[in-house]
Amino acid sequence: MLLKQAVHKHWSRLDGSFEEPEVAEDEKVAVRAALLAALWAAPPAVRVSLGVCVAAIAKHDYPDAWPGVLDALLEAVRRQGPEVRVTQLPSLRARQQS
Question: Which pTM value belongs to this model?
Fold first, then answer.
């Protein structure tokens, strides 16, 4: 929950709900990598929240700062079972709409 709030408030100055301070670029790189790794290891209830974070970050960072996110999500969905596929739909849908 705190991560979702931090992403919405501090990730990008272009977001209407932005508040200082903005997350530093080196921290953004680390968060993006950790999120994708955690997404597949987390329990289903946590995956949904992480997926929302991935979608929020991808809205701002794809394709320039996070060009591989869509390919990583699609590949993971192909490799994982149906329960993971269902939890990833919000990430993919939000990415498609932005």
Answer: 0.79
